[in-house]
Amino acid sequence: MLKRNEPTFRESVDMMFNRAVALMDLSPGLEEKIRVCNATYTVRFGVRLRGDIQTFTGYRSVHSEHMEPVKGGIRYAMSVNQDEVEALAALMTYKCALVETPFGGSKGGLCIDPRQYEEHELERITRRFAYELAKRDLINPSQNVPAPDMGTGEREMAWIADQYARMNTTDINARACVTGKPLNAGGISGRVEATGRGVQYALREFFRDKRDVDKANLQGTLDGKRVIVQGLGNVGYHAAKFLSAEDGAIITGIIERDGGLYHPGGLDVEAVQHWLTRHGGVSGFPDATYSPEGAALLEEDCDILIPAALEGVIHLENAARIKAPLIIEAANGPITASADEILRDKGTVIIPDLYANAGGVTVSYFEWVKNLSHIRFGRMQRRQEEARHQLLLDELQRLDDYLGDAWSISPDFKQKYLKGAGELELVRSGLDDTMRIAYQSMREVWHDRADVGDLRMAAYLVSIDKVAASYRAKGL
Ligand code: GLU
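A: This is the predicted complex of the input protein with glutamic acid.
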């Protein structure tokens, strides 16, 4: 996919990092220490499948251990390579620092096309990969905690957790060795939707400040905004679903592997998702214009573009033709460093990946804490909270009775107010808070520093500053 003169993913991340540190006052030694990837482990292992031994290549890269455990997903894709895993690990470091999850950055990947294997084969491959990583402490609740990424999900995380537990039978915290697990295997409510939810919260916070909205030459709120989403995987699907169902945004375009769908009046996200699962692609979907040239839809007129699939989809060739005034990077690295420059020159506002898709790792953090504390969030306080609310309601009821027709409690107030927060509500509240605070820290730098012209630089400045402070505190 890379064009000539296009930096690799790893180079792109380094270029963005370099642009940021040029505005900072770090010693060259510390700068270098933060930039480099600490270690990348490559493993080649064989699994007997279909009567033969198949060899797989996997990676786990640790970018920065200024905080431990290090955190980051495991990706299953044929395109996985060392450059990519290292770039993604570096992004994890900056992402975790920005949203204040107490982790260093890591990432893993396995070169595999998961669609070519049966479930029981994938289980054997995953368990073997997990074994190789766990025996080197590259999976470990206090050192390295993987999570889902492209091509992996709850199922793979459950296998990894079980594999680790079998190898560490006396580790009481074994479940915290990986996040993104199913609820019945120690997962947390709201983890699956978390990254898409985070994208929604990020956009809401963006639209709360008129100065930001003005910078993108937009007006008003999310209501009625035309949105094109690239990739209807876990992240793109949830973002599109929440934005259309809860914020009034109109999903005018959806791009998938086999092409794009366009409907100026808005696509039914749920219906497209159903079609995609049943047919393996979007072609043939009724109620929309289909084009096999999905990438061309990235260039269509819209208010918000959400690349939620692969890295490098907006590059030197197509960047100048992108019309969206606002892009939110739900994927990691969807805009190459050279495309970023072209878009910045055009005045496009970009909400950068290290912030925009941090919802996933944020809820992973909650899951890890839940596993270490061995108790579900809300279990202790929910009923107590409800009892206190009942007290207030009883008093209000007395007032209602006393005032007669002059005043009465609104019909659905009782029901809404009485309900104490369960785990899902608490997770969403924690995620919303995290996304708001992190955005506000970027916004402050973006508006206050004349030498910072874009949100990506603001994000890097905030996060590198935090990583540097950690290293300094360690005496480095
Ligand atoms: N793979 C996700 C990411 O790129 C989640 C990582 C995590 O939860 O640790 O941010």
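The mean pLDDT is 96. Residues 71-73, 147, 149, 179, 332, 357, 360-361, 364 surround glutamic acid (CB under 6 Å).
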